């Protein structure tokens, strides 16, 4: 009887060790620790790093914009595909908002929705070609990227003499460049260095997180990414879900383009040119699988935060843009190489957990008998 009591206890300890191992191996925990260490290290060597006005504020603005870009890529990666036109979709979405502001002087929210519609329409077109024509997402989005690379500057030169559109819509400057310190209740004001645009990114994170965690559509998207044939046999409309993720990707890219235009005060054809690398770095570093079937919204945010902290730190140390691009490219290569290792490790961890649960059930039955 004594031996039989010890076995369940040992198995419970085994399950606890599996959970602890799973927590330690969670790359989000590692990313968070690495960010904390880097912030402390850079701040100790360069106290200027903690300046709210000159470093923290611009850095949080970049994190907000690039997080939305990362989400745009993440939703497509969820079905095992990619969007190489994320920069072009950001540019055409921002252009759509700027044109509607300039032509009709519409309210801020209307202009934003028009921009999202522009980006979403381009994404939907890519999704239709991929889902129904059977063309690879790499080919379709690459071709779309080149098409937008020529279309967007041509439209700007047609509607604006200076290849840029400056918008004076009420609320735009406040959204793009104001901080919490600008909001006061009496004599009490918010903390300095936290831009309002950060809350746009947080809202996008909440919406996308709820989509994948709580909605039927989100679950069907992940099942499609895990195994599209099995998803079809389960009566999941796979082509529609592919169109859904590309439409959503285009809308999110357009939102990021609008955020960049609002933060600079000017909408130009150059919006989105630096989005490609960041769009992959955030999700992949955050744990999203290239093969599809698993995404991490928080991981994407942490991955983007890590890259922005590294970039800001290198700039403070005087490293040029060339060295910065080399480092970020190397980080992406390492992340891509680690993706396969992470997949294998995760499969083994799930297998160990399943074996531990089976052992517990068997031993509990033995105790009862």
TrEMBL record:
- So which domain of life are we looking at? Bacteria
Keyword tags: Cell inner membrane, Cell membrane, Membrane, Transmembrane, Transmembrane helix, Transport
- Report if keyword Nucleus is assigned: no
Q: Please give one Pfam family short name.
A: BPD_transp_2
GO function term, MF aspect, one: transmembrane transporter activity
The record's section on InterPro entries has: ABC_transp_permease (IPR001851)
* A GO term from the CC aspect: plasma membrane
- Localized where? Cell membrane
UniProt main location, coarse? membrane
Topology class, membrane: Multi-pass membrane protein
**Which segments cross the bilayer?**
29-49, 55-77, 84-104, 110-132, 139-159, 193-213, 242-260, 280-302, 314-336
Q: Which CDD domains match?
A: TM_PBP1_transp_AraH_like (cd06579)
Q: Cell inner membrane among the record's keywords?
A: yes
Q: Which PANTHER family would you find in this protein's record?
A: ABC TRANSPORTER PERMEASE PROTEIN YPHD-RELATED, ABC TRANSPORTER PERMEASE PROTEIN YPHD-RELATED-RELATED
The name this protein carries in UniProt is ABC transporter permease
Q: Which organism is it from?
A: Agromyces aureus
